[in-house]
Amino acid sequence: MRFINPKTDFAFKKIFGGKESKPILISFLNALIYKGHPTITDLEIIDPYLPSRVSYLKESYLDVKARLADGATVIIEMQVLNVESFAKRVIYNAAKTYSTQLIRGEGYFNLKPVIALTITDFEMFENDREVISHFVFKEKKRLFEYPDPGMEMIFIELPKFNKQLDQLETLTDKWVYFMKNAPSLEVVPSTMENVSEIQQAFAIANETNLNPEELKDLEDRERYIMDQQGILRKGIQEGREEGLAQGREEGREEGREEGREEGREEGLALGMREKALEIARQLLNVLDNQTISQTTGLSVEDIENLREE
Questions:
Q1: Nearest one of 130, 191, 119 to 158, comparing CA atoms
Q2: Which residues make Cβ contacts (< 8 Å) with residue 89, sequence separation at least 6?
Q3: What sign does the CA torsion over 89, 171, 22, 217 have?
Q4: How far apart (Å, rounded) are the C-alpha atoms in residues 103 and 147?
Q5: Exposure string for 241-267, b = 16+ CB within 10 A, e = fewer
Q6: Nearest 5°: CA angle at 135, between 130 and 138?
Q7: What average pLDDT values come out for the chain (309 residues) when binned by 10 residues?
Q8: Cα–Cα–Cα angle for 275, 280, 283, nearest 5°?
Q9: 259 in Cβ contact with 253 (< 8 Å)
Q10: Distance between CA atoms of 143 and 88, rounded to whole angstroms?
């Protein structure tokens, strides 16, 4: 058997956001949010599109969105490319989901919690080696929690997970392993056979269950991701080289360490922006402005300007 890559948006939505995905999503969320405890007993998978009730707010597109039995909302995003300002985008989507619950005249007591679950195929927190990071509002010095904080953010960094099949102990281990390694497997591992929801996820991910159009769509998306990863890696490297060169030059002229550091930072930022613009130009005839903005980290205004060039 061959399994589709759950890290692509197409596969992720098919496995966790489809009509048959409810028990799969419940198990997945219990594993990643509640350490495997059966806290979530029921949920409703809802439209992940976040339209703007206010004209000046950006529209948002999530991978999967669910409303839990207690009224809380979980928004889930699988992110493969480390695009500019992605961390801010996570906060924006969580805050927007929280704030747009109310309609005119409703009291704040009607607000329900929002949990933003983000799975990344890159390292977001380079100075920390934990796979799962859980953020809540806390007092800065004494670290007590804000009363009724409303929002939580949970990040799963797949590159930091290095357990092998014979080391999988918890439900959390098994789901993270599935997310990271499913495409490289040929059979459902025996260590996962006792979790029926993971077996169902493998069944949906089995390539033989996809029609030719779905397979082509999946291949196109995987090829696109690989291309963009290559472009981003090249852009980052070129930006670093340009930044170092500019930093050394300014350091010589000014004779100060401050000059070198500023040159590195400005050069890196300039190089990365130029590469982002280059990627955006290639996508103008393929994607809409919003999707290009989310992919490259550029603003929608930047994309609109490119179309007018």
A1: 119
A2: 294
A3: positive
A4: 23
A5: ebbeebbeebbeeeeeeebbebbbeeb
A6: 130
A7: 87 90 97 96 82 46 86 93 86 92 87 96 93 96 92 97 95 97 92 93 88 74 66 63 65 55 56 77 76 79 85
A8: 135
A9: yes
A10: 23
